Amino acid sequence: MQSLLPFNRTSWRRSCRHAKQCPKDAHRLRAQVFRCVASVQQVPVGATRASPSAVGRPGEELPADSWYTKNIAIPRHVDSVKVAMLEGKGRGLVATRDIALGELVMATPPLVLVTSPQRQRPSGELVVDEILERRLYSSKWFSVLYDGSSRSCKSQLELAPDADAAAPAAAAAEAEASGSSPAAASASSSEAADAPRSARPPEPILASTSAPSPAAATAAPAEKKKGFLASRGPAMRRGKGSAAAGAAGDLGAAAAQLPLPDRREQTRLAKVVKFNCFGDDAEDLAACECRGEQPRGHIGLWPEFALFNHSCAPNTINYVVGEAMVVRASRHIKAGEEVTICYLGRPQLLPVSRRISILAEDYGFECSCARCTAEQAHYDKVEDVYMELFEAVTEQLGPAFLEARAAADEEGVREVQRQVQAWLRRLYGLFRKTLLAPDVRQYVLASLYDAYDLLLSCADALGQGEDASSLQASLKAIEAVSAGSDLHVLLAIRHFDETVRQHGPDSPLAELARQALRRAHVARYGPVSEGMMARLVDLNRKLHVESSS
Length: 549
Ligand SMILES: C[S@@+](CC[C@H](N)C(=O)[O-])C[C@H]1O[C@@H](n2cnc3c(N)ncnc32)[C@H](O)[C@@H]1O
Prior knowledge:
Elements: H1 25-34, E1 77-78, E2 81-86, E3 90-95, E4 104-108, E5 112-116, H2 124-133, H3 141-144, E6 157-158, H4 162-165, H5 167-178, H6 182-188, H7 190-193, E7 205-206, H8 214-217, H9 248-256, H10 263-276, E8 278-280, H11 285-291, E9 297-301, E10 309-310, E11 316-321, E12 324-329, E13 338-341, H12 352-363, H13 370-377, H14 379-406, H15 410-434, H16 438-447, H17 449-461, H18 468-482, H19 486-503, H20 508-525, H21 530-545
Parallel strand pairs: 10-13
Antiparallel strand pairs: 1-4, 2-3, 3-13, 4-12, 5-9, 6-7, 8-9, 11-12
Helix pairs in contact: 2-10, 5-6, 11-21, 14-15, 14-17, 15-17, 16-18, 17-18, 18-19, 19-20, 19-21
The structure holds S-adenosylmethionine.
The site of S-adenosylmethionine has 18 residues, from strand 3, helix 10 and strand 10.
Protein name: SET domain-containing protein
Domain SET: 79-344
InterPro entries: Gramillin-biosynth_MTr (IPR053209), SET_dom (IPR001214), SET_dom_sf (IPR046341)
């Protein structure tokens, strides 16, 4: 039987499906670095971190540096997007104004969050357990989030304005300003008393608010509880170091008395989790280092974030800071444009036919994003070479490289290098012959990232140092589809370092490489100061580049 929860929405770099068994050298190395595993069994759930040293004011984007100088709780921020009904997609989020590269689009607290001190994404079933255990199903979010039925993405809703959401954070911030501790301030307001470290996501504003949550309406008597909870051992029970955000206490004593929903409703809740949950093996490593936090594996439900639709070349980048899901514009977004994220993780860099089948299988929709549409429209012009090259790299040349390298067979590695280069030359020839538009070229090349990755590994194994042209080509392609991703940041650093090495720090090429490096970091971390940018670049160099070479 298929696993209940596929959870593909992870950062590409830590989500290699093959992990340690991966025939690709680069994936195997990453698997060692990140200790990613093909299937996460039971993971000890992490203890909550120490309280943040300060709490930001609600509705206000803090100077970007402050997020990375201390473990400040990130205040909720939603002011440049609104919910809209979109043809063929249900609801989605659209920009209410122009949004600049690196600008914060959303910072939102989780309704439920499960973390692990190990760098492993915990199982999605733990999220379902938390929801049941802490009676979070009485939240209106569970009656409006997508559950796989077409009916469920039709309810019209609005996101609460910033100020309503973060009353506890506001109380804490005010208290801090007045000299008392944030904790004392929280305790002084009944809502704040139960707030964990950041405000809970505000309930959605519904067009019709009369409907009770289906879960609450169909609740079965507590003693008859069955399903996920009943089948779990004591280690899965509440309080086991769980870092769930929306704790039972949030709902007060009345909620604690709520009976469990019946089995059918529990199944529906599991589907809500499946379609809307996000998880990753670790938070951003550089941000954690700056904030003095250990990176944690995590999985959770950020209901406002769950309203973003998918694109294979999205215009935002997202990851978790503290407990907040942070979404930044990875390029300029025009007012009225749909704001999208990518659900795919590493498979984002697969050919269009593979991406489409993964999305259909895991999320039940046929992707018609700009990248898929453009790639499909020109598919017949490049298909043969494109797919043959992809298959040759993954099935034949990748394994051949590993074998040759293990046997110290230099000629074998050279042969792999020659073959990949010959394939790419054929593809570039086709691009020229068919006059393929530059953006479509980049989309196709991003799907062939593995070929560049293999060339980089070959050059490394042959002691040729960095393969500058492969670095530059892959950086361009990754920026086109996945700006602000950890891969983008990593390639930008390697490309900059190599350019400086070859041409000197004051050369025009180094200046171009410096700008590319800056774009990657602004997309991911926002408009930070020069000093903070230098620190983040250094940390990313240390944490990623050095550890994977
Ligand atoms: C996390 S929800 C996103 C919000 C959802 N549209 C809603 O109305 O609640 C994921 C679901 O949205 C729909 N969806 C997301 N991106 C889509 C896209 N690019 N094209 C069509 N449907 C999409 C799919 O049904 C998918 O399973």
